From TrEMBL:
This is Uncharacterized protein. It comes from the Eukaryota. It comes from Dreissena polymorpha (Zebra mussel). The lineage of its organism: Eukaryota, Metazoa, Spiralia, Lophotrochozoa, Mollusca.
Length: 87
């Protein structure tokens, strides 16, 4: 009987852990979406300003944006690997 109870407890713990992981993933996704939205807004603002600026500056801005996006992507990948190591 005690063994059964223990098993049930363990299962519950596992479920909770899974839920936590899911929540974390969801949070990460939300963060990514927010970042993308922010980027878009920034781009729009920039575009309006860019009409007066030169193309060179625009290219530099684009490159910087791309770098930022790449960095965030790699960070999230690392986070996922970290999670998998723990499991």
């Amino acid at each position: 009987m005690a063994l059964l109870l223990l098993l049930l407890l363990l299962l519950m713990m596992m479920m909770v852990m899974m839920m936590m992981m899911m929540m974390m993933m969801m949070m990460m996704m939300m963060m990514m979406m927010m970042m993308m939205m922010m980027m878009m807004m920034m781009m729009m603002m920039m575009m309006r300003r860019m009409m007066r600026m030169r193309m060179m500056r625009m290219m530099r801005m684009m490159r910087m944006m791309m770098m930022m996006i790449k960095n965030t992507g790699s960070n999230i990948l690392l986070f996922k690997q970290h999670n998998e190591m723990f499991n």
